[in-house]
Amino acid sequence: MRRDGNGNLPNGKSNQDTSVVRGTRDRQFCIANESITIHHSFLFYSWQRPMRVAFLSAGNLVPSSRFRLPFYRHLQSRGHECVILSSFPQKYDGIDWMGWRLSQLLKRSLRRLDLLRLRLGKFDAIVIDRGLFHTDDWSLERRLRKFARRIILEVDDAVFIPFPEKTAGLASLADHVIAGNDKLAGWLQPHAQALSIIPTCVDLEDYPPHPYLNTQKDSEEALTIGWIGSAGNVRMLDVCASALRHLAKKYPFTLRVVSGPGHGLAEIDLAGVNTQWIDYRTCNEIEELHRFDVGLMPLPEGDPYLEYKCNAKMVQYMTTGIPAVGSALGFNFQLVEPGTNGYLAADDASWHDHLEDLLRSAELRQQIGQAARKSMLNAYTVQSRIEQFESILQGEAPRMNPNDAIC
């Protein structure tokens, strides 16, 4: 139906009236002079009223929730009301002085209060991050189903390995399941009423390009090889430790590790490597990323979880424009086009050679970094996925075949 110059329908109704347009549409917009295309192949809706959306967050320091929070900020800017109900203590944590059992009791008690708020709040959609608790119990989620208008389950990790029955039950309970990648979608699809893939995304407003993306670093400045992630994953640096030890004998560089306490970095053999640890809780994440000249994404072989990981670390590096080397495993194959927007290493020799190439050439670092950021813009940013996410919350996104490409 044709609208006038003010976007109104011929009968005088405004843009706020419900309308449906079928077909495919591309939208382009720019952030910091970078063009982003949003590709649509589903229905587009303009609602009569904004949605009320609740997000049952695992906690603002838990990656699965932290990377989704920017979506709600953008939903609010689009006129929707969003309420974030965070786990306290955070989903995988306790309060030291209280002890583990009392911490979990407190966590469950507060979640019951959250359910009461949800019952009274008349929300249009309620989003659950993986599940409320890191146990096989999902009784509170079943209670949620009794009154929730629409439930969305987000899964960005292989939570079905420790809790297969719970994860299958939650997928069946939900009106729509969002999987972080095609491998996760393949497991979840038989249990889900409807399913879509939205990968781990970053907000371009929070992730400006690396300062050396368009200007080269002074040749006399020491380089920094960086790793960022949770303390429990620092052990993965052992995968590339041998290459780092050999390179430290030839090139002056600093290995900068940004993580939480209890990281176990001292247990990794990094003899001769100038190593710095930065407390993730007290630093500015973007400032730290901008200190990296090269990023690391090592993954050990033989871990069944790694096949399903969404590799947020690699997305962070590449979106920022940091040239990175990752293990030739899992989702890295989907993110990286070797030699074009990054490198994949399968053994000590390839880790050494790829890192050496990047340490030796500022021009190569710049070239790979530019290609990496460009490759992320149209599929791994909040800006490129917000309308798909909004459509899912509204209940109008179609089921996606997990065999379809993520882009």
What keywords describe this structure?
407 residues, 6-stranded parallel sheet, alpha/beta, globular, 2 domains, 16 strands, Rossmann fold
Your description of this structure?
This protein is of the alpha/beta class. It has 2 domains: 19-202 and 382-394, Glycogen Phosphorylase B (Rossmann fold, 3-Layer(aba) Sandwich); 223-376, Rossmann fold. The chain has 13 helices and 16 strands. The two termini are 30 Å apart. 37% of the residues are buried.
Q: What's the layout of helices and strands?
A:
Elements: E1 19-21, E2 25-31, E3 34-40, E4 44-46, E5 52-57, H1 63-66, H2 69-77, E6 81-86, H3 100-121, E7 125-129, H4 139-145, E8 151-155, H5 164-173, E9 176-179, H6 182-188, E10 195-197, E11 223-228, H7 241-248, E12 253-259, E13 274-279, H8 285-289, E14 294-297, H9 312-320, E15 324-327, H10 332-335, E16 343-345, H11 348-360, H12 362-376, H13 382-394
Parallel strand pairs: 5-6, 5-7, 7-8, 8-9, 9-10, 11-12, 11-14, 12-13, 14-15, 15-16
Antiparallel strand pairs: 1-4, 2-3
Helix pairs in contact: 2-13, 7-11, 9-12
Oligomer: single chain
- The amount of beta strand, in percent, is 15-25%
**What is the element string, with H for helices and E for strands?**
EEEEEHHEHEHEHEHEEHEEHEHEHEHHH
CATH class of the largest domain: Alpha Beta
Summarize the entry for a quick read.
This protein is an alpha/beta fold. 31% of the residues lie in helices and 19% in strands. Helix 2 (69-77) crosses helix 13.
